[in-house]
Write a structure and sequence with these properties.
The complex is a heterodimer of chains A (306) and B (453). Chain A has 306 residues and is mainly α. In chain A, 40% of the residues lie in helices and 8% in strands. Chain A has a three-stranded antiparallel beta sheet, with no helix packed on it. In chain A, strands 4-5 form a two-stranded antiparallel ribbon. In chain B, a hairpin with a 7-residue loop joins strand 9 and strand 10. The chains are: A mainly alpha (306), B mainly beta (453). At the A-B interface, helix 1, helix 2 and helix 9 of A face helix 2 of B.
Chain lengths: 306, 453
């Protein structure tokens, strides 16, 4: 659980003990470092949780604006604190230099559909339930608290290309402009995030790795407060099943102005064609990612914004 | 829909000053329905309206055993049921509009009929509920089979007579106030002038005339020009019970603004801002979320208002803005569980609160089908449970206690055993008597205090 009150300084083991004028903690003892890293891990897990909550959308019913605002404010608060700590910058840099392991999840495609209310009625809502993580295509079902009739399915991809240069950003639910990251090769720590809810122990042991592969933020603009995750966007033929599924979707749904944000974005067909390329066999190299970065801008805004 | 009536007793070890005195009779009306989303007594307490997730409104009527002694046992029976809202589809946004009834507010009664406002996320409707217990009989214009007689064959004038018939309660929509809200309506409040009412969504508040459906006035707008800068939403709003120019609205940041409509047409600039400074020792990442106000209610006398945030109920004196005059902890034991409650979204549950008729006791709900009452005069509180399993007919309902420490006493419940799916979000108090309505997820419980003697 989060400790109350004081903000912890990011203690660098290499630092000399603080000078007498420093009101903060003195020489970083092993205990202090442990406590500090535990706090930052907890904070990181809260950030992950919050970003996931923001991602999940209810495509058929408008999301609860109050809840979205509160979660976004929490993310902002964490990011501010991490920026002051210096951990934000470090995480950014680490991600920039990180290589992407083959089994890392990088892309999420969010599909929301209504399920039979009766079937859901018997279920007690639970927050996250990872069906299974495996290389390649997998789906995750999430039942949101209080929305028993809505099932959100996230289909995630595993990037198999070691070079990730895809766009990575995550805009808040209200942001319009792309939260664009100059550094490339950022990864989304998808599976570990979801794993966290189930088993934080397992993830804590991978703490260091997670810090590197973690959600990135756009540190370029100070005003942007939301973290990022990347999308792998290999070029593949569109998935006909997906197109059929959304053939009736009104493109104006993605007019975020009336939903949460200010300007209209690309329509669902564009979105789906982009995302439907995330088929089970999407293994192409990252070279095509760069060309689709602008499109990804829009895609992610839509996904996250709605 | 109405399944059965169970008679239960309510007992409280506290003094008789608290509404649940020792000699109490409680009746639970169990109504299997869709998830109940709002509960509201009318101004006399004779009628109790509930709205559910399926867009239905069910109205119960009080039937008093002995009208000379109204404090004796009375029943609430189903009086009228109607479908208020239907699911809709917003074609412009390709989004469904839920039919769930968010709020019901009764209008003061002016004639034989009853009127209430019911609202879903987007549309407010004014419903007229009227009784018909007579019909006209004795026309000589029709044949036996209903065909009209040849007018030439009618030679006498017969005036029909009104004869009694079985009571029929009709609900008809009289006004539909639509297309005025971009965001989800969370509050509706009838003004004391009985002519206007306000409706509030996440970012705006509109003022309506009850007679006019094609136009409303926007009186509060907190939508930023750039939605990226949005950090605060409106969570609840209410008119002052006596001053028709005054209303309040609460926000997700824990502030309440009191506005005067005489000051300007747009009341973005508040007349008073009620906010309690944060306790720095309680600061966490969840501080803002738990400070978000889920309900605001004026006292009947108009001197105080009550707010409900996630962990507490606060009473504010309208003359003092910088802090509440009373604070009651509803379930402080949840403070150490905030991360889990954030994870399962329970931290976003919106609990309502209510005053009793003379403003001496306030009530609000909690988890595990618990609800709490705070006696302001005697500084006492009680936790009760609305559940059929734990209450047999005619058995005393005993207060519950949540154990927070290590050693759990008998009959206490540990925090980890609480069922967070069983939440009581909606409660209502009869305006005159000690009768309360408590809604669990699917059931409505009506508890009554029977005075001794």
């Amino acid at each position: 659980m989060f400790t109350k009150g004081t903000k912890r300084k990011f203690s660098d083991p290499g630092e000399e003990p603080a000078s007498s004028g420093d009101p903060g903690p003195a020489a970083p003892s092993a205990a202090a470092r442990t406590l500090s890293s535990s706090y930052s891990l907890q904070r990181q897990s809260l950030l992950d949780m919050s970003l996931i909550k923001l991602q999940l959308c209810h495509m058929l019913v408008e999301p609860n604006l109050c809840r979205s605002v509160l979660i976004a404010n929490t993310v902002r608060q964490i990011q501010e604190e991490m920026t002051q700590d210096g951990t934000w910058h470090i995480m950014t840099q680490a991600l920039a230099a990180a290589q992407c392991p083959a089994d890392r999840l990088v892309a999420t495609e969010v599909l929301c559909r209504q399920t039979d209310a009766a079937a859901q009625a018997g279920q007690s809502p639970k927050p996250f339930s990872v069906v299974g993580l495996q290389e390649g295509y997998h789906s995750e079902e999430v039942v949101m608290e209080g929305d028993v009739e809505t099932e959100v399915t996230m289909s995630s991809l595993s990037p198999l290309s070691p070079q990730l240069s895809s766009a990575s950003y995550l805009t808040g639910p209200f942001e319009v402009g792309p939260c664009w990251e100059e550094e490339d090769e950022e990864e989304e720590e998808g599976d570990c995030e979801e794993n966290e809810e189930e088993d934080s122990e397992g993830c804590l042991s991978d703490g260091e790795e997670r810090d590197q592969d973690h959600l990135n933020a756009d540190s370029r603009t100070g005003e942007k407060v939301f973290g990022t995750f990347e999308i792998k966007h290999p070029a593949s033929p569109p998935d006909p099943a997906l197109e059929e599924l959304f053939s009736d979707v009104d493109p104006s749904y993605y007019d975020l102005d009336t939903v949460l944000t200010g300007t209209p974005k690309m329509g669902p067909y564009d979105l789906l064609e982009s995302l439907s390329s995330h088929g089970p066999t999407a293994l192409s190299s990252s070279s095509s990612c760069r060309s689709d970065l602008n499109e990804l801008d829009h895609i992610m805004e839509i996904i996250v914004g709605s | 829909m109405q399944k059965d009536l169970t008679i239960l007793n309510v007992n409280s070890p506290l003094s008789a000053a608290i509404m649940m005195s020792l000699e109490t009779l409680r009746k639970a009306v169990s109504v299997e329905s869709d998830i109940i989303s709002t509960v509201e007594f009318n101004h006399t307490g004779e009628l109790l309206a509930t709205g559910d997730k399926g867009g239905r409104v069910v109205i119960f009527q009080q039937e008093i055993e002995n009208k000379n002694y109204p404090q004796l046992r009375s029943e609430y029976n189903v009086y009228s049921t109607f479908q208020s809202h239907e699911p809709e589809f917003d074609y412009l946004k390709s989004l469904e509009i839920e039919e769930k009834i968010n709020k019901i507010r009764w209008l003061p009664q002016k004639n034989a009929a009853q009127f209430l406002l019911s609202t879903n996320d987007k549309t407010i409707k004014l419903w007229k509920i009227s009784e018909r217990d007579r019909r006209a009989d004795g026309y000589n214009l029709k044949e036996e089979d209903g065909r009209y007689k040849d007018p030439n064959s009618i030679t006498s004038l017969r005036v029909p007579v009104l004869i009694p018939m079985d009571l029929m309660v009709e609900a008809s929509p009289r006004r539909v106030f639509a297309n005025a809200h971009t965001y989800h309506i969370n509050s509706v409040s009838v003004n004391s002038d009985h002519e206007t009412y306000l409706s509030a969504d996440d970012l705006r508040i509109n003022l309506w005339n009850l007679e006019i459906t094609d136009r409303s006035f926007n009186i509060v707008d907190i939508k930023p020009a750039n939605m990226e800068e949005l950090t605060e939403v409106i969570t609840a709003s209410e008119f002052h019970p006596n001053q028709c120019n005054t209303f309040v609205f609460s926000s997700s940041k824990g502030t309440i603004r009191l506005c005067d409509m005489r000051a300007s047409a747009l009341c973005d600039k508040h007349s008073k801002l009620f906010e309690e400074p944060e306790n720095p020792s309680n600061r966490s990442f969840f501080s803002e979320i738990i400070s978000s106000i889920s309900d605001v209610k004026f006292s009947h006398n108009g001197q105080y208002m009550m707010t409900r945030d996630y962990l507490s109920v606060k009473i504010w004196d309208l003359k003092m803005e910088n802090r509440p005059v009373e604070t009651y902890q509803v379930h402080e034991y949840l403070r150490s569980k905030l991360c889990s409650l954030y994870e399962n979204d329970c931290i976003f549950d919106k609990f309502e609160c209510c005053w009793n008729g003379n403003d001496s006791v306030v009530m609000t709900g909690s988890y595990n089908n618990f609800f709490r009452m705070f006696d302001r005069e005697h500084r006492r509180d009680v936790t009760l449970e609305a559940s059929r399993e734990n209450s047999k007919p005619l058995q005393v309902l005993k207060p519950r206690k949540v154990c927070t420490g290590g050693k759990r006493k008998k009959d206490e419940i540990s925090v980890d055993s609480l069922d967070f799916n069983k939440k009581i979000l909606h409660t209502a108090w009869h305006p005159l008597d000690n009768i309360i309505a408590v809604a669990t997820t699917n059931n409505l419980y009506i508890f009554q205090d029977k005075l001794t003697g």
